[in-house]
Amino acid sequence: MRHASRWTVLAVVGILVLTVAFFAGTLVRSALQRPSNVVRAVPKPTASPSPPFVGWAARPPGFSTTKQPMPLVGPMFDPTQDLAVRGDLGLPFAFRLPKGWACVPLTTDATYGIRSDCVDGGAASFKIQLRVMARDCRGGCPTAVRQQLTANWPGLWAPPTGTDWTAVGASASYAQVTATGRYHLWASLFTISNGTQGRMQVAVAVDGPVTDTRLTQQIVNDIRTQAGP
Predict the structure, then answer these.
(1) Domain 83-227 classification at class level
(2) What pLDDT, in 10s, does the model give residues 146-199?
(3) Which alpha helices (DSSP H) does the chain contain, by range?
(4) Domain boundaries, the chain
(5) Which burial class, exposed, middle or buried, applies to 191 when counting CB atoms under 10 A from its CB (0-12, 13-18, 19+)?
(6) pTM for this structure?
(7) In what order do the strands lie in the sheet with 172-179?
(8) Is 188:205 a contact under the CB 8 Å cutoff?
């Protein structure tokens, strides 16, 4: 009799376990299938930023032979130098480089505008590297905005932290460093219209052997003259 009652108890326990397991499984499946009432914060798609040169990129990048020279540091090009006008880089101005230089237009974006990279030889043999960037300076380009743009460079182009800048009027500044036999020159140039209103920043980074300091300065001065007011 005791054996029969023990088997009865075990049977009842087994039924209870199966019943609990069945209802537990039903609840789990129901929870997985039921839509969640938690709304995830998904940002709404936004329109892409406007191109940095609305109305400027379409302007033919002509070269002027009548502009007043605007040297920033060092000399201008000599009339005897063998130069080529580069108006094929997507920039809203043209400038000169010695013949034989190779240039590659880089990706245009809303942060760094229109960029181009130039070297004085092949990929493995060049000595001088020039980087030019042009971007809009909206809202009249007040002093605070100019300072912000001057400090904001693409990573590989940026001057070392703490580099001293020399201001040339209200529309230009430059920094230069000589290290390990190479001369580095950075320039932040603002074209001006209507007397005081800034319209565009042109940023230039160039480096080469110290022996080519004069040439690197001539290139920057030509860019300033052609991109200037």
Answers:
(1) alpha beta
(2) 888 888 888 778 898 889 999 998 789 999 999 999 999 999 998 865 455 567
(3) 2-33, 143-151, 213-227
(4) 83-227
(5) buried
(6) 0.73
(7) 102-105, 114-119, 129-136, 197-209, 182-193, 172-179, 166-168
(8) no
